[in-house]
Design goal:
The protein is mainly alpha-helical and about 375 residues long. It folds into 2 domains: about 140 residues, Alpha Horseshoe (Serine Threonine Protein Phosphatase 5, Tetratricopeptide repeat); about 130 residues, ANTH domain (Methane Monooxygenase Hydroxylase, Chain G, domain 1, Up-down Bundle). Strands 1-4 form a two-stranded parallel ribbon. A two-stranded antiparallel ribbon has the order 2-3. A hairpin with a 4-residue loop joins β2 and β3. The longest helix is centred in the middle third of the chain and has 37 residues. GO terms for molecular function: 1-phosphatidylinositol binding; adenylate cyclase activity; clathrin heavy chain binding; phosphatidylinositol-4,5-bisphosphate binding; SNARE binding.
């Protein structure tokens, strides 16, 4: 029966490739080579991932934003006509890689995903065998759907900010909103995991490899953004800042649990669990007191206190100890999405996700925004 299913799946992929061959003659605006690479990268084979064709898709997208139309057409058609969890998951992984190609014109236009897998259900096996895969696909789709929209909004926001100058308070509010959205995205990633006993398959492990890297990436952005916003936040933003700090501390603990689960499941990128450094409670209390005093008016005759109030707070984490340093220079942050304006071709040369080493992850450490498969 398994052999028959594999043969039937291979025939379906072959028919799709033949259809692309006919479209080459009948359509001038579609890129048949790109469509063929998409079909091969999202085949029905659950025993392997076609890295070479996935990278061909990325090269086509980086070569010209005009190929986005073909990508959206081909992958949405592929997903909308399938009832296979394998094809659905490979399509999500392929689009995840496209979002990491760092091409603003492409990421900015994708916005939300061109298909809906929120109620996906595999139609090739009984529900008792596929319910875990169905949930995995749905939760992965939910994350990627919001992640795509988030990246697009950030690019359009950057373009708008470049045309006009923002007040410092407006910049702080925008940055706080961005951090909260990143924290929501991290919560979504932590929900994506295999929950059925029959899910230890190559494709699931490959998907988890990508998600482990993305979780570290997003957590690194959150921590880096918190470090940059602390010197700029005033009394009015103090409550939001502290809420974000507490949330980041909690998410660091959740990430450790997530890594431990991934390690026990056999995810290669979780073989060594990073040491996530948290902000001690006494330092959180110090941050609260300092932020609340930034915009307070000093009492008459207390010039020294006024000088102290105008100074900024910077929290530095080191392997053995956390220090609070006072400085009279405000730190000006740049949106980390400016990196989308730069290409990183070396990232796409590797076929497998990066391996996470057993090194402490400090608040000041920025993880690479990379996913490779």
């Amino acid at each position: 029966m398994k052999l028959w299913k594999r043969a039937a799946a291979a025939i379906k992929d072959r028919k799709s490739l033949l259809a692309v061959g006919f479209s080459r003659r009948n359509s001038s605006y579609r890129n048949a080579d790109l469509e063929a690479a998409i079909i091969k990268a999202t085949s029905h084979d659950d025993s392997s991932v076609d890295y070479s064709n996935a990278h061909r898709v990325y090269k086509w997208i980086r070569s010209s934003p005009l190929n986005l139309k073909t990508l959206v057409f081909a992958i949405s058609s592929r997903v909308n006509h399938t009832r296979s969890w394998i094809v659905a998951l490979k399509s999500l992984m392929l689009l995840h890689g496209v979002l990491c190609c760092k091409v603003p014109s492409v990421v900015g236009e994708i916005r939300r995903l061109p298909f809906d897998l929120s109620d996906f259900s595999d139609g090739h096996s009984c529900l008792s065998k596929t319910w875990g895969f169905n949930i995995f696909v749905r939760t992965y789709f939910a994350f990627l759907h919001h992640y795509s929209s988030f990246l697009s909004d950030q690019i359009h926001r950057l373009r708008g900010n470049n045309r006009r100058s923002l007040e410092k308070s407006d910049s702080v509010i925008q940055e706080l909103e961005r951090i909260q959205k990143l924290q929501s995205l991290l919560d979504m990633i932590l929900q994506i995991r295999p929950i059925a006993d029959n899910m230890k398959k190559t494709l699931i492990l490959e998907a988890m490899d990508c998600l482990v890297i993305e979780s570290i990436n997003i957590y690194g952005r959150i921590c880096g953004a918190i470090m940059k916003i602390l010197p700029l936040a005033g009394k009015t933003e103090a409550a939001t800042v502290l809420k974000i700090v507490h949330k980041a501390t909690s998410q660091g603990e959740d990430l450790i649990i997530y890594f431990e689960f991934c390690k026990s499941f056999g995810v290669s990128n979780a073989r060594e669990i990073p040491q996530f450094v948290r902000i001690p409670e006494e330092e959180v209390e110090a941050i609260e007191k300092m932020i609340n005093s930034v915009q307070e008016k000093p009492e008459p005759g207390k010039e020294e206190e006024e000088v102290e109030d105008e100074k900024a707070i910077v929290v530095l984490e080191q392997p053995k100890k956390l220090q609070t340093i006072i400085t009279d220079k405000w730190e000006i942050f740049e949106d980390d999405y400016r990196c989308l304006d730069r290409r990183d071709d070396e990232y796409h040369q590797n076929h497998l996700p990066l391996i996470v080493t057993n090194q402490p992850v400090y608040i000041t450490y920025t993880m690479p925004d990379l996913i490779t498969f």
